[in-house]
Amino acid sequence: MNSVNTLKIPVQITNLQRQLGGQTILQDITTQVRPGDVVGLLGKNGSGKTTLLETLLGFGAPAFGQCQLWGEKSTELAPATKQRIGYVPQRDELPGEMTPKQLFDLYRQLRPEWNDDLLKQLMPEWELSEGKRIRRMSEGQKQKLAIVLAVAHNPDLLVLDEPVASLDPIARRQFFQQLMDYACREHTAIIFSSHIVSDMERIVSRVWCLQNGTLTCDQPLDTLYETVVRVDYSGALTDKAVIGIDQILFSQNSPHGGQLVIKDWNDAKREQLLSLGASQVKASGLSLEDIFLYWHGGTYAN
Amino acid sequence: MFILNPGSGVPIYRQLVEQVKRLVAGGQLRPGDSLPSVRELAGTHAVNPMTVSKAYNQLELEGVLLRRRGRPMEVAPWRDGEASTEDLLVEPLTELIRSARQLGVKLPELKVLIEKHYRNIK
């Protein structure tokens, strides 16, 4: 497996199963993240997102299968490989008694690569003061600081677990602008989880959706837009006919027409609907938020 | 420069492609004008740089933009019979005509409606 190719792949997950306290949290996960990818991780609370991010970073051992970062098992990473990772955990783990300046001085010694220019740019831009004790900072300020610390050593893989939960809309936009500027660097890969799906929509190239510990969706965002659609039609379709159509996430019928949300829309599906008696078949795109809601069982979406 | 609408269900690269075409067709972007770099666009609009590249690549393939080594993307010279304003209106027109048919509105009625609203909409 350790060919030249795997060395270039930031994240390779193979048949991953993870158990915690006798419970299976993740199962049957096989996927990869390539350089240039910006992966958005979606999932309900408790679906295993944080566990997946922690496992791929090697914070815990899989019960079965494995995670590799650039071809190295993530539980046995060489120190130099660890330097290529930037991580923002969901809950900040910053030492409350220290100031950012003290932290920077400490990190500068621990990190062979350290981008002081980026700090000089980001600290004022994000309205952070170097001399303020961390415990006196707001949640949003701490989150910004955690992000600054995660990117200051120019990592090739950035893993962000709910990085924007405490940020106001302006700070969020600033963060994403910075993140996309960062994504322009060659070889960089980014994985982040968020419940703010509309933000994700701007910036991700790929969507992972975790449901009960399994990746039920692992697709380019543009493919999702084109294949998960709402279909409006005129004419009557019997309930039986509708059940016969594959991959329906939602349906609402009347004798005059109805609406379907279909997971794998294509021309063959259009033909099938027409042959079942529908007319005026019109497909339209959904927002990622709606796709996510329908994916979890249509009743929440409208 | 662009107005992107992430929640619309239309892929962002397609929104970019359409908007560039509209700006070119409407003369706001003229042959030889240069476009912002991938990095600039990704940064200002906070969108994925690959999305911008994808849009630029498609526009290059379609002959709307030109790529020259070491230079920003620029608007290609006009060629006859290409990307006319009619092409750009086909999609919204199709939508309108379908809706009209669903409502049982016939062509003469539709024409009257269009005339009425064409005057009213500023």
Automatic annotation (TrEMBL), chain A:
Q: Where is the ABC transporter domain?
A: 11-237
Transmembrane segments in this chain: where?
none
Q: What molecular function does GO assign, one term? A: ATP hydrolysis activity
Pfam families listed in its UniProt record: ABC_tran
- Its name, as the record gives it, is ABC transporter ATP-binding protein
UniProtKB keywords: ATP-binding, Nucleotide-binding, Transport
Automatic annotation (TrEMBL), chain B:
Parts of the chain that traverse the membrane = none
Organism expressing this protein natively? Gilvimarinus xylanilyticus
Coiled coil segments of this chain: none
Kindly give the SMART domains that the UniProt entry links to this protein: HTH_GNTR
What would you give as a GO molecular function for this chain, any one? Answer: DNA-binding transcription factor activity
Chain ranges of the HTH gntR-type domain: 10-78
Q: Which Pfam families match?
A: GntR
Please report the name of this protein according to its UniProt entry. GntR family transcriptional regulator
Per UniProt, the keywords (alphabetical) are:
DNA-binding, Transcription, Transcription regulation
